[in-house]
Amino acid sequence: MKIKDILAKGRPSVSFEIFPPKKEAPFEPVKGAVERLARQRPSFMSVTYGASGNARANTVEIASFVQACGVPALAHLTCLAATRDSIAGEVAALRAAGIENVLCLRGDMPKEQSAQPGGCFSHAVDLVRALGGSGFCLGGACYPECHPECEHMESDIGYLREKVEAGLDFVTTQMFFDNNIFYRYLSKLRDRGVTVPVIAGIMPVTNGRQIARICRISGTYLPSRFKAIVDRYGDRPAAMLDAGVAYATEQIVDLFANGVNAVHVYTMNRPEVAERIMANLRSILQTDDR
Ligand code: FAD
Fold this sequence. Notes:
Blueprint: H1 3-8, E1 13-18, H2 28-38, E2 45-47, H3 57-68, E3 73-78, H4 84-96, E4 101-105, H5 124-131, E5 137-142, H6 153-165, E6 170-173, H7 179-191, E7 198-202, H8 208-218, H9 224-233, H10 237-257, E8 262-265, H11 271-287
Parallel strand pairs: 1-2, 1-8, 2-3, 3-4, 4-5, 5-6, 6-7, 7-8
Helix pairs in contact: 5-6, 9-10, 10-11
The chain binds flavin-adenine dinucleotide (FAD).
C-alpha cells in the first residue's frame, strides 16, 4: 500500500523505524524485532539505508520481510555516494521485492570518502527527479530546526519546496523534543506553499548520554524540562526508559490533539519501547477508529 493513501485517510497514524543488520551480522534479531513491531499494527514501517554503518544491501531484504509481516514498508535510499547505475540497481531490487514506498535522501558522505564517485547526485532533489514517474510513492526528509549545513531556515525551506515540487508525496521530520518548534515550522511550510503531508518524527529517548551527543550533532534543541529528566535518570536505564516513554507519549498525544495525524516513532529496533508507547495510546487510537 502507498503511504500517500494511508495518510489521505486523515486518521491518526503511527509508524515505526527499523535499521537493518550491519554487514555480516545475523538477520534473526532484526527480523524478531520486526515481528514484534508488526503486532502493534503500525501504519507502516520504514527501513533505514546505510545509516550508522548498516549494510545497504540489507535494506531491501528487511523491507521485504516487513511486508511479509503484513505491514507496508518504506525503504530509505541515499544518493550522495551513488552512481546512476547503482541507483538503477537499487530501484530494480525494490521493485522486484514489491516495495511501493521510497524515502529519497541525500545521506552523508562516508568518513573514508571525500569526493563523489559518479557526481550524479548532489542533493536529495536529484534522486527525487531520477525516481519521478517511476510509480513509487516518494517521501523526503525535513528539518524543523533547519538542516545543520544550511545557514538559514528560509533557504532550507526553499530547497525543501524544490524537493516537493520535484515529486515528493510526503515528508518526515527530523526528531524534535519541543512540539512548539514543530507547530511553528509546519505553519512556515504551509505559508511557503509546501502542502504535502508532514509526518512528525518522535524519538523516545532511552539512553541519556547518547541523546546529548546526537542533539549536539543534529542541532536539536533539548528543552530544560527534558534536560532535567536526562540529568536525573540518565544513569539509570530502567528509570530512563520509563521517563523516555512517558515524554514521547506526551508529545504524541499533544500532536494528535492539535490535529497532527501522522507520527513516526524512531523505535531504533527496540520493540519494547514501541509496545509501551502503543499501550499508552490504545484508547486514543481506538476512539479515533483506526
Ligand atoms: P537534502 O534535501 O539534499 O539537503 C541537504 C542539505 O543541502 C540541506 O542543508 C539543504 O538545505 C541543502 N540543499 C538541498 N537542496 C539544495 C540545492 N539544490 N542547492 C543547495 N543546497 C541544497 N541518512 C542515512 O544515511 N540513511 C537513512 O536511512 C537516513 N534516514 C533519514 C530519515 C529522516 C526522516 C531524516 C530526517 C534523516 C535521515 N537520514 C538518513 C539523514 C540524512 O541523510 C541527512 O540528514 C543528510 O545530511 C541530509 O539528507 P537530505 O535528504 O535531507 O538532504
